[in-house]
Amino acid sequence: MAAVAVSPRGVAVDEFTPYETALLCGGPTRAARVALLALYEKRRVRVSRGTRRVTVVEREAEDAVQAALLDEVPDTGFQLGYVLDAVAESDEVAAVAGGLVERGLLRRGFRGGSGLRARGRRPGAGSARTPGPAHRPGSAC
Fold this sequence. Notes:
The protein is mainly alpha-helical. The chain has a domain at 16-102. It is built from 5 helices and 3 strands; from the N terminus they run H-H-E-E-H-E-H-H. It has a 3-stranded antiparallel sheet. Strand 1 (45-47) and strand 2 (53-56) form a beta hairpin. Helix 1 packs across helix 2 (28-41), helix 2 (28-41) packs across helix 4 and helix 3 (64-72) crosses helix 4 (80-88). The longest helix is centred in the N-terminal third of the chain and has 14 residues, at 28-41. It is elongated and about 45 Å long. 25% of the residues are buried. Residues 112-139 have low confidence and may be disordered.
């Protein structure tokens, strides 16, 4: 029998969806990136390296967050940063966060990119953050 990793709050780690894990580890923009990556891996979107423009190849989503991302991209494509920001602030990502709030894993008041804090962590705690998706040493995510 394999051991199941359990958080200090008694929640089994495997009980989290990829979006919940992304929200807890990197906030709403990370959840938007998870949706983009899932669509990219299934070749439903393309991202231009040169222009950083997202274009839709196939408008088929597997969940509400992916659908929100596809809805943000017109047929002519759109800038990657704008798409990620819009999805991060979407009702779909807020709904995922709402489930975490109900379970006591996020504080109330979460909406899009503002105010996301892991429970027990105050804003600005720890070392200064660097811009971008850099991984912090010692971080579990």
